[in-house]
Write a structure and sequence with these properties.
The complex is a heterotrimer of chains A (about 375), B (about 220) and C (about 250). By secondary structure, chain B is mainly α. Chain B has 9 helices and no strands. The longest helix of chain B has about 40 residues. The two termini of chain B are about 40 Å apart. The longest helix of chain C is centred in the N-terminal third of the chain and has 34 residues. Classes of the chains: A alpha/beta (about 375), B mainly alpha (about 220), C mainly alpha (about 250).
């Protein structure tokens, strides 16, 4: 979808060596992918981004969007086909929210009625009530609300590509997490190709299908978050992602991917013998007792029933330590295990139905597989 | 051009005398206005409604053209035999100076970061200590900006005051107008303009000097 | 100190009675000094001078507004950037020049009469308009312009859709200042032989004629206050809500 070929930018400094803000950057981002440009300040990530919509003229190299060489397009036309979001939001205070959202559709002389309808739809997607907000002015909105408008303004003309320059950098941490989730959900539906500048490794891991790490104008590594965390290419990246990179990887994996599926579920009225056989067959050391609705009620371990005979499961049961939702990530799961001081947790779905369990051992062995399989869906 | 140089060399004692007269009128009146405007500006920070009223009255006063102000002052001051001359001009300038000085004092004190006030309170400063040690030093540059505005504006007002017999550099312009004398017109106009521009510049300098070092970036 | 504030706050009804008393006294005063009679006797002159005064204020003010906004916009254009700082400094210095000096200098070039008065008032008005227009446009934050450019606006569109609308309030403040100076200077044009209400005042001063002085002064003061009042209302209602600090809630 977007291909950069040997993209280079030299900033001339009078009387000095030119600053090389981008040095032969080559990369490719597929349709519908979110690619995060990550790096310390002054690494050239923003320059690289702004060359794509020609806000900064490039020195050399090529930029292709959808196979088309952007040199053949004039800057104005190109920019109207690319959504653009900046950290300072840049809503126009003289226009209502509605006119702000419809800036590009109006520039393109699209049908007014349709673009207004579209504006309402987009506002629904970010949970802002159009009937309340459309006629307001930017200053009447909070920072988080303004940036939501900033994002949907970029989407109003339905551009295939979105450039975002630290879009959530100025928003407080709590709101930032919410707005990140909203954006991910929205883009899962819209399927835009997104290039996103950030200096926050956690944001990059959360938002990116791909992360491109820059240093001094050089693209050091461009890979899936998992690959970057498990196989940092050099010591710079290793330092940049942090010594806790293994823990950060945990956020990439969902509980549902690590769960031991509906294993060793027993009922209260089952005999001890049956439970023990079940555990031996599946080669696990514990069994979870489920109630009539399929909820986890308690558990028993092989050690506990060793040497006991002739009883029923219900008599030997211990209460479960807690539960974890199948859509949570492994980071949450490990955290829960520490809270409850245990090495396993039963996994449940939305209805609270028991789905299987997860153990520290499994998590450790999943982190050991490198590169992980999940990366397969991204090339 | 030669005429002008000749006029200036022949009449520089007069020009100097008129300049001093001009400055005397402006500095006495603006000086008095500082002593009334700053306390009023501080006082009205205590009450927003009152502040609005005071600022409104001051802004109406400043809207009244200087010639009209003189015209209103003459009959009133005639009752105490001070109808023309220094007094009506001085009082008019005093009144005109109120708005810039009161307004700047008020906004300066009002705009002080509440956290600073909180910190000063927390350290156990009394109201008066807070005002004298924190709020006034921080407000001084902004108040000075108001004084500067008042001075520049009133150098112009004082020029017109020649028509009510208050002297000053307006005298030369007046002679130029009545005698259609270009030399006098130019000398008078340039002299009074230079006076205003130099005063503007000097007060800007003063404003910078009085700005606490830690703030100089912010207020420039 | 708090006691004084309380006293002033409670004084609303008191000040109302004082006002009534003042109106009554001034009525008695003006009747006894023949102010009203004088006013009625010279009513035709008054109407004429008022009309001339308003005419020259209005025409020179409007002309200055348009010229000033136009020049301010030109000054803010990229191709003028190199010189605009010098110009802005120059305008700052010039606005310190007393208005009587402006009239005097113009008189040396164009003599006396309506034309000089018009040019004089125009010069006085245009300075704050140009200055505020330039300042308003150049103070539009850089990130807002980047956002506009990033959305694909042309330079022209950025100017008309973003920069000018966001500078409107600052521009309007410049127009108000300009008109205030204009009205304030207008009585002085009598001195260079143009008709204005200043005639009452200067005649009054010369002949020590208080009635004429009061009629002129009160009319000029009223004209100035009403002009500023109208401009304030226009500023309130004409500047769009999103960029009008007067209408922020």
């Amino acid at each position: 979808m977007i291909r950069l070929e040997n993209l280079t930018k030299h900033f001339e400094v009078p009387g000095k060596e030119p600053i090389i803000a981008a040095n032969n950057v080559s990369m490719e981002v597929g349709k519908g992918e979110i690619c995060i440009f990550l790096g310390p300040s002054g690494c050239g990530k923003t320059t690289a981004l702004k060359m794509i919509n020609k806000l900064i003229p490039k020195t050399s190299g090529k930029i292709y969007i959808d196979g088309k060489d952007t040199d053949d397009l004039d800057a104005i036309t190109l920019r109207r086909e690319i959504g653009y979001v900046i950290q300072q939001i840049g809503l126009f205070p003289n226009m209502t929210i509605e006119s702000n959202i419809c800036v590009v559709p109006d520039l393109l002389r699209m049908d007014k009625k349709k673009s207004r309808e579209k504006a309402s739809e987009l506002m629904d997607m970010v949970n802002l009530d159009p009937s309340i907000f459309l006629k307001r002015y930017p200053r009447e909105l909070s920072g988080g609300q303004q940036q939501r408008i900033g994002v949907i303004r970029a989407l109003a003309a339905d551009p295939p590509v979105l450039l975002m320059d630290e879009p959530f950098g100025a928003i407080d941490p709590i709101n930032r997490a919410v707005i990140q989730d909203e954006f991910l959900k929205m883009n899962a539906e819209l399927g835009k190709t997104v290039l996103f500048v950030s200096h926050d490794i956690n944001e990059a891991i959360k938002m990116g299908d791909k992360i491109a790490i820059f240093r001094d104008g050089i693209l050091e590594q461009c890979d899936t978050p998992d690959e970057i965390l498990s196989n940092p290419k050099n010591s710079f990246i290793k330092d940049f992602v942090g010594t806790d990179r293994a823990l950060k990887r945990l956020t990439l994996i969902k509980v549902s991917e690590a769960v031991l599926p509906f294993l060793a579920a027993v009922k209260a009225e089952d005999s001890l013998e049956k439970a023990e056989n079940k555990m031996r067959d599946r080669n696990v050391h514990l069994a979870v007792m489920v109630g009539p609705q399929g909820r986890a009620r308690g558990y028993l371990t092989r050690e506990k029933i060793k040497g006991e005979e002739g009883g029923m499961v219900g008599e030997y049961i211990s209460p479960i330590p807690g539960t974890i939702h199948e859509n949570d990530n492994l980071h949450d799961a490990v955290s829960q295990m520490y809270v409850h001081a245990c090495d396993w947790l039963p996994v449940v779905d939305d209805n609270g139905t028991y789905k299987g369990f997860i153990t520290q051992h499994i998590i450790a062995s999943m982190l050991g597989e490198t590169p992980r399989k999940r990366g397969d869906k991204i090339t | 051009m030669e005429d002008i140089i000749r006029y200036v060399t022949n009449n520089y004692p007069t020009i100097l005398k008129l300049t001093i007269e001009h400055l005397y009128l402006v500095s006495i009146s603006v000086g008095a206005a500082i002593f009334s405007g700053v306390p009023i500006g501080i006082l009205i920070t205590k009450d927003k409604k009152l502040a609005e009223k005071v600022l409104y009255v001051a802004s109406v006063i400043i809207t009244i053209p200087s010639v009209a102000m003189f015209g209103l002052m003459i009959p009133i001051l005639s009752m105490v035999n001070r109808g023309i001359g220094f007094w009506p001009a001085a009082i008019a300038i005093f009144l005109y100076s109120q708005l810039p000085i009161i307004r700047n004092t008020y906004t300066a004190i009002n705009n002080i970061d509440p956290a600073l006030r909180e910190a000063a309170k927390g350290m156990g400063m009394s109201d008066w200590q807070r005002l004298s040690k924190v709020e006034i030093p921080l407000a001084v540059p902004v108040v000075m900006a108001g004084v500067r505005m008042a001075v520049v504006m009133n150098i112009a007002v004082a020029t017109i005051a020649v028509y009510i017999g208050a002297g000053g550099l307006g005298t030369i312009i007046n002679e130029g107008i009545t005698g259609t004398n270009s030399t006098k017109l130019i000398v008078g106009a340039v002299a009074v303009s230079l006076l205003a521009i130099i005063a503007d510049y000097l007060f800007l300098l003063l404003q910078k000097i009085l700005t606490p070092k830690g703030l100089s970036e912010v207020t420039s | 100190m708090n006691y004084i504030i309380e006293l002033i706050k409670r004084s609303r009804s008191l000040s109302f009675y004082i006002l009534l008393a003042l109106i009554f006294l001034s009525g008695v005063f003006s009747e006894s000094t023949g102010l009203i009679k004088e006013f009625l006797d010279t009513f035709d002159d008054w109407i004429y001078l008022l009309r001339q005064n308003m005419l020259i204020v209005f025409t020179s003010g409007i002309t200055a507004t348009f010229l000033g906004i136009g020049s301010g916009i030109l000054m803010s254009r990229p191709w003028f950037r190199r010189y605009s700082n010098i110009f802005a400094q120059g305008f700052n210095v010039l606005s310190a020049v007393p208005t009587l000096a402006v009239l005097a200098l113009i008189m040396t070039v164009t003599g006396i009469g309506f034309k000089s008065a018009f040019i004089g008032l125009l010069t006085v008005t245009i300075l704050p308009v140009v200055r505020n227009t330039y300042q308003g446009i150049s103070e539009v934050p850089e990130h807002m312009i980047e956002a506009a450019r990033g959305q694909g606006m042309t330079d022209q569109q950025i100017l008309w859709k973003v920069q000018i609308p966001n500078a409107l309030y600052v521009i309007s403040a410049g127009v108000r200042t300009g008109f205030a100076l204009n009205v304030g200077t207008s009585p002085l044009i009598t001195l260079i032989a143009a008709d204005s209400l200043g005639e009452y005042i200067f005649t009054g001063i010369q002949l020590n004629e208080f009635n004429s002085l009061l009629i002129g002064s009160l009319s000029v003061a009223a004209l100035a206050i009403i002009t500023d009042f109208i401009l304030t209302k226009l500023q309130f209602w004409l500047i769009p809500k999103g960029v009008n600090p007067l209408r922020f809630t």
